[in-house]
Every structure is written in C-alpha cells, then in structure tokens.
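During the reporting period the student researcher (J.K.) took over the structure-prediction task from the postdoctoral fellow and processed the backlog of single-chain submissions. One of the processed entries is reproduced below for the supervisory committee.
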Amino acid sequence: MDLDLALVLGIIIAALSIPSILSAISDRRAPRASAITVLIAGGLIVFAIAGKPGGYSLQEIPDVFVKVAARYMP
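J.K. obtained the following structure tokens:
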C-alpha cells in the first residue's frame, strides 16, 4: 500500500470515528466499534509514518492530501 494513501485513509477514518465515539458516550454505551476504527486508523497512520524515512511533518499533510486526491481522482 502506498504510504501517502495509508496516511490519508488513517486520518479520514480517525476523523469519522469521532462522532461515533461521542454518540456512544452520550447514549451511555461502550464505544466498541468506535474503538476498533480508532485502532485501524492509528495503525494506518503509524504504518505510514514508520515506513517513510524521516516521517511526515505537519506542513506536509495538506500536500499529501492533494497528491493522493490528484492520483486517485479522475
């Protein structure tokens, strides 16, 4: 898997799991599915950061999003 794609997917999955976590907590249920998605997102992000020599800086992340979108969008 492309490291840039893994980083972008990890960030998107992490962002989408936040409403699920908040919903589960407000309904007083255990956020089991949300915890799994957070673990998946974290794994993708760690995979991308560990695989790229030097890692990613915060300034690079918007450029990575644009590169991935340009690569996979027609």
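The committee noted the following: The CA atoms of residues 10 and 41 lie 4 Å apart.
J.K. will present the remaining backlog at the next meeting.
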